[in-house]
Design brief:
Layout (H helix, E strand, L loop, with lengths): L3 H33 L9 H12 L4 E12 L9 E12 L4 E4 L11 E6 L2 E12 L2 E11 L4 E8 L3 E12 L6
């Protein structure tokens, strides 16, 4: 019969071995991701940097972005303490059609796109709105993506020209298959 101390030692050994195996699997998957080109580490070389500059100035075709944002959602009124949390979303623009969209709260969705304007590296998408939230009428939804630094800001405009930023964060280009 095993003593409680011996059983505890065997349990700890099993936990350590399991953790080591999981760590090795994660490292192996990460190494494969780097090898396959799915994960990029370090700085970009001259070719990569030149490509990034072209993307910043690209004003034709379509582009999609994946964004990590902090949401500051008002509760009952705009003055009430907001609920703050992080989320991921996708935004897209069609430079030729001069439209854009993003997924999220108060979204300018793919089905109801907003009007796109480009000013240098800054992409701005807006759409008129007419619905009530937080006790006030929302008359416009906007979002911007600055391609120079990746910053994302989503703004609601209320009747009386009061504005509120609901989402703020950073975006990067979304690469789709083939990688």
């Amino acid at each position: 019969m095993k003593t409680p101390r011996a059983a505890s030692g065997q349990t700890m050994l099993a936990v350590l071995v399991s953790a080591a195996i999981v760590l090795l699997l994660v490292l192996a998957l990460g190494a494969f991701g780097v090898y396959a080109g799915w994960i990029h580490l370090g700085s970009t070389g001259p070719k990569g940097a030149a490509t990034k500059e072209i993307e910043k100035e690209k004003n034709t075709g379509e582009a999609k972005f994946i964004c990590e944002v902090t949401i500051s959602m008002p509760q009952r009124t705009l003055e009430a303490e907001p609920k703050v949390y992080n989320d991921m979303l996708i935004a897209g623009v069609d430079y030729d059609q001069k439209t854009g969209w993003y997924q999220g709260d108060f979204a300018i969705s793919e089905g109801h796109k907003g009007a796109l304007t480009v000013n240098g590296s800054k992409i701005a998408v807006s759409r008129p709105a007419m619905f009530e939230r937080f006790g006030l009428m929302i008359i416009q939804e906007d979002f911007t993506i600055d391609r120079a630094d990746g910053s994302f800001v989503q703004t609601l405009t209320f009747k009386g020209n009061k504005t509120r930023h609901i989402l703020k964060g950073f975006c990067g280009g979304l690469t789709t298959a083939p990688f």
